[in-house]
Structure formats: C-alpha cells, structure tokens
Amino acid sequence: MTGGVTGGVTNGRAGLARWAPAVLAALGLLAGACGSGPQTPERSGPGSGPASVSGSGGDAGPGISPAISPVVGPESGPVATPAPSGSLVAGHYQPLWPFADEKQVRDWQEGYRSGGHQPWHLDAEQTALAFTQGFLGFTGVDQVVTRTVTGAHARVSVGIRGEGGGRPGIAAVVHLVRFGTGPDAPWEVVGTDDTTFSLTTPRYGALVSSPVTVGGRITGVDESIRVRVRGTGSAGPLGERCCVSAGGDDVPWSATVTFRAAAGRTLTLVASTGGHVAEVERFTVTGVRVAG
C-alpha cells in the first residue's frame, strides 16, 4: 500500500523527471515483455509479516514506485495462502510492477546482457517514476524527491511540483526490491510506505474476489478518494470506484470495488486523493492475488 506525505524536502533529485519521457516510451515494449501475467511510516505495503525484511544487493532499478515493507493493518480480508516461490519477490513480496514473475526477469536479463535492452530497470528512481506515471497513470506526479537504498531494498519518494517553485510535495514513498539473482537483478515495485494515507484492507498478499472491500485511514480536509484495481500487462484499470468523501484526523475510510481478473493473478489496489493543488496529491498501494 502506498501512503503520501503532503510536505516534502528536495535533495536535488527532482531533475530526474527528465528520464520520464524515455522510460514511458519503453513501457509499450515492456508490456509485451512482461505480459499480463519517513518519520515512522505505517507499514501498509507488502504483507502482514515482519515490518521489515533485510536483503542483499546493490542499487538499481528505474524509479517506478515500489511498495514497502509488510504492514500489520486491519485483517478483514481472507488470509493468503503461499504463492509459488517464482512469483514472489525475495520470497516474500508481491510483484506489482514491472515484472510478473522470475521468468520475465530472466527474459529481460538475457536481452540486457546481449544488447543492453531497457537498462532503466537497473535504476530505482526511473522505475519508481515509470510505475507512478506509466502504470498508475499519475502523470502529474513527476518528481523524485528523495531516495534511499539499503541492500536489495530502495525507497523512492515521488511527488508533485511545489507551488510557485517551492519544495515538491511527496505523494508516496515507493518501495522497491531487487527481483531475481545476479548483479543485474532489476528493481520491482512491491508497495508503498504510508503515513497520512493508508490502504490496509485487504491485508497485503491476501486472496480476494470481486467485489472487494478496500479501506484504510486518512488525515486531511475535503478528501475525495478514488480506488482502482490494476494488473501488470493491462492498459487500463480492471475495476474502479469514485469517489469516496473523507476528512479528519486519522479517520477510517472504505469502498467496495468490482473487478474482473483471472484466478491466481497478482493485482495492485491503488487509492488516490487530490484536488487541492493537483489532481493526484497522495496515493497508496497494496498487492493482493485473485482467489481461484
């Protein structure tokens, strides 16, 4: 799940938005390759397991909003059963984007090793931006505000331009993890680190069916929450609900969404809010699988 922080600090990396056109241009090729197949943030990202998972590996991966560590939130959804090992990232996280499983990772690695195919997968910032703008469709969230890499994990804060040239506002902290093996293991988005806006129901990694009840907590004024169901390889949402009115200090919100997707497929549930200074000002995501 993803959460946003309304205020942000820039570290000079906002200029990385210049990568976005090239990355977005590669998304068409990626769709074919991938198939369909801060403070103390609330962990509403990968799983209901430990709050953090250590990993090994270096810095890589284009910035597409990776999800963050497991969250222990409301558990109204069904308990997930173990997924095939090849379909989990680092044996624990849901593969949200850009790769659906390790086979797709290996296919990309072969192309990269033989001809330098789509090197942006080795840059966490580019991957996070591509995820946010290309996959989620939040084109106005075009700034990389901060980036932290620890072993095989990266957290990239993506945001919107500040009013009057001020500091960018953070829309979400994307959690990415290296997927596969080798020094050229690419970055995969697995969730988000949430603060003032969270998505904790259903539980990360849960098995779901349509319609699904989605919810979490939010702090804000006159918020309008849109919920979408997305899947790697699909051009548009597989389901959508708009809009849920919310507001207050750490208050609960919920919505029911109908979707269509094949059994066993990994889905990204994404909630977004905005409308004060930009269409999308904060967003949060979580990963689930369709029950068979």
Structure description:
- The protein is an alpha+beta fold and about 290 residues long.
- Helix content is about 15%, strand content about 30%.
- It has helices spanning about 20-35, 100-115, 125-135, and strands at about 145-150, 155-160, 170-180, 185-195, 205-210, 210-230, 240-255, 265-275, 280-290.
- It has a five-stranded mixed β-sheet, with no helix packed on it. A four-stranded antiparallel β-sheet has the order 1-2-3-4, with helices on one face.
- The radius of gyration is 17 Å and the shape is globular.
- About 55% of the residues are buried.
Keywords:
3 helices; 31% strand; five-stranded mixed beta sheet; alpha+beta; 292 residues; disordered N terminus; four-stranded antiparallel beta sheet
Briefly say what this structure is.
With 292 residues, the protein is α+β, with helices and mostly antiparallel strands.
Strand content: 25-35%
User: What is the number of helical segments per DSSP (H or I, 4+ residues)?
Assistant: 3
Secondary-structure class: alpha+beta
Low-confidence stretches: 2-44, 47-81
What share of the residues lie within helices?
10-25%
Record the SSE blueprint.
Layout: H1 20-34, H2 102-115, H3 124-135, E1 143-150, E2 153-160, E3 169-178, E4 187-193, E5 207-208, E6 212-230, E7 239-257, E8 266-273, E9 282-290
Parallel strand pairs: 5-9
Antiparallel strand pairs: 1-2, 2-3, 3-4, 6-7, 6-8, 8-9
